[in-house]
Every structure is written in structure tokens, then in C-alpha cells.
Amino acid sequence: MEVDRGKASHKLSQLDLKFSSGSYDIEMYWFRVMTVEQDWYIGRHTHSAYEFHFVAEGMSAVKTDMDTFMVEQGQFYVTKPGEYHEQVNIQGKQYVEYCMHCQITLNQTASTEDALLFKILNDSLCKAYNDRNGIIKLFEEVLASAYYENIGYYGQIQRYILLIITKAIQVMSEGKQFDYAVPLKHKKGDYRFELMSQYIKDNISSPMMIKHVADYMYLSEKQISRIIKKKTGLSAKQYINQIKLKKAKELLKDTDMLMKEIAEQLGFSSEYYFNQFFKREEGFPPGFFRMNTSF
């Protein structure tokens, strides 16, 4: 079933889209399709919010206090708060425009990247930009989401809004160079160590061997041992045992589980082998540890 653009626009305009995401607080005042034919004219006016105009069909002339320009299918323009503009059609042909009229503010958690995007939005000229980023198609995805109302569509539309704004600003900033820092993962060795450490903890109830960790990480057993040794000073086997011992102490201290149940949860084939492991690591059996540790 094809999307009925008129019905989709109506459904979209009925949604209360006021949300915060990351650095942005956004409120959509209108979000819709404007379709006009024959002669039409929108007189000089301004808004206290941002207007994004994406042309899906036809052509119009836009006049601001600074310039007059043509905008046609596959192009867009943006007016900022307080920016006066007027618009008239060309040759009386059908004109279809996807419109976003919204308030955009940065919150106190604004990242360097988002603050820079916001600055570009406010510094850019009101003129015709070529949609090289597939923004019009994104808007049509929004219309489809509103039309079909599949589960998750409201949150999906919010994410599309952020993507449309970001992609528009990217086009508006073309030809400019920016250098700024973004969060990076830890060093390669640190990142791998954290992954394998979490894997061991997540699978503590299974009989854990170095081979299992190596298979998960797509590394050799020697590489696993080398990374663990560098980070902890322990062999891979010692590190696995250290994690098991720590978990064993938590269960002995904080639960009333039977020894057999603890043994099973830690991947031991029997209570006997769990006792032998604990005594080898600590010098005394787990029962002694439990008796001498208050809940």
C-alpha cells in the first residue's frame, strides 16, 4: 500500500513532538507537507523558531531582506529566528514543500560537535542548497512512519528529525573544514581486555578455558595471555580463577545459597571441586569463609 501523502501529513501534524535528545531540546510547531497550485504568495513574515523548507516538486522564489533566490525540486532553504522572508510560486505550477517549523536549543550537556553544528545552523546564509544528503527521502520516511504507525514509530520520527537537521547542516557547511575532538574508545589493548574480562564474567557459570575466550575474541590463546599479563600481571588462568574467586566470595557472603548451588553457578562439576578450588586459592574451605563473614 502506497503512502497517501495528504493523510500522512495530517497524521504527522497531529503528533506532539517535544523531546530532548543528547545535546538538543526540540519542539516541533508544525511538521507537514505544503501543496499549492496556481498563483500563491506568502507575504513578508518572520518566526521565533527555525523553518526548514525542502522542495519535493516545483519551484518558487524566496525573498529575504538580504537576497532573492529561486528554490526548486531537490533543493532546500532554512530561515532562522527573526529572519524575514516571503515566497511566491513560479509559473503557477504545483509546488510541494516538506516543512519543519521547530524550536531548537542546546542544553547544558551540549557536546563540542553539537555546539559546532548549532553554530553553523545560525551562521549560515538563507539561500538555496542542493539536497546532496538524501534529506527529502528521509522526510518521506517520516511520512511513511506517521502513515503506517508501526510499533516504535513515534520514537523513530524523533530520530529522523535529528538526522534531518544534522544532514541539512552538513550540506550548509560544505566547503568548510572543522577540527574538533570526539570521544574515542580506549587504546586497543585496553578495549580488548575489557571485552574479554566482561565475557569471562558473563559466562562465569560455564567451565571457562582460555580457548573459549580466544574463540570469542578471534585471537590466539597466546594473544589472550599476553594482553591479560600486560594488564594484570597474571596468567590468563590465574585471572579467570581470580574472577571466579571474587564471585564465589560474593555468593558466600551475600546469599544463603547451598555450596552445591554455588559450585554449579561457578561452573564446577561438583561441590568437591569447588571446595578444592577455594581451599587452593585461599588456604581454607568456603564454609570457613562463610562462617567468618557476616551478612
TrEMBL record:
Residues 194-292 form the HTH araC/xylS-type domain. Pfam families: Cupin_2, HTH_18. CDD domains: cupin_RmlC-like. Keywords: DNA-binding, Transcription, Transcription regulation. The keyword Transcription applies. One of its GO terms (molecular function) is sequence-specific DNA binding. The keyword Transcription regulation applies. This is Helix-turn-helix transcriptional regulator. Coiled coil: none annotated.
